Amino acid sequence: MACPRPLSQCDPTPLPPGPPAGRWPLPLSRRRREMSSNKEQRSAVFVILFALITILILYSSNSANEVFHYGSLRGRTRRPVNLKKWSITDGYIPILGNKTLPSRCHQCVIVTSSSHLLGTKLGPEIERAECTIRMNDAPTTGYSADVGNKTTFRVVAHSSVFRVLRRPQEFVNRTPETVFIFWGPPNKMQKPQGSLVRVIQRAGLVFPNMEAYAVSLGRMRQFDDLFRSETGKDRYQPPARSLWPALCSLSAHSAQRACCSQHALL
User: Fold this and answer.
1) Which residues have C-beta within 8 Å of that of residue 152, sequence separation ≥ 6?
2) Mind listing the domains of the chain with CATH numbers?
3) Suppose 95 and one of 83, 129, 212, 233 were both cysteines; which one would form an S-S bond, judging by CB atoms 3.0 to 4.6 Å apart?
């Protein structure tokens, strides 16, 4: 409606501010969408922060129960098993004859079944040792320059009995002074009717000079206890039912009882 008075006397009605130059107001629907999107983003950030704080609290509460006081270990060392106290007389049962296992060597060399000695030319040094202990069917023929030929004791697991006895020229006749120590499940090694015992006894008929012993049940129990204390596993309970003490470990412990000093050649 026009003002009836002169323009100079009229009070003009203020107009609402317009948009800045070059900009047009956004449609209402678009502004609502942007506001909704901003709210969703803020909600997502809040949820993430809440989850991180919750995880941090849970981790802190669990860690508080697992604090280990290292100061309590000062002056404490693990006491090794005194293998010197293990009796040698009842630790090994003669399979052939009524002989007693030789109980003392001043120096022993333990030669394991690995191939790490190849190319070392340690054969002469091994030959000079008073007693040499080998394992299973580890051969010496063709490798004497590195591992020597002398074999005082050969420790044989029940699973390797046939592999050893099928090659008598390598393991029995080549070093007739060798003493065989067999070990394995009691039903195979400690009973007269055990199948492996009969096989070893038949081999003794063919080779009268062969000397063989089986690890006694009492000694195997000692090794079981030692195996459990060293590994935390019980071979009589699954899944460790098939875990017999390592052959190298058994040989080393036997050597520690029978020898004044030992040298392991891996």
Assistant:
1) 105, 108, 130, 131, 132, 133, 177, 178, 179
2) 91-216+248-265 (3.90.1480.20)
3) 212
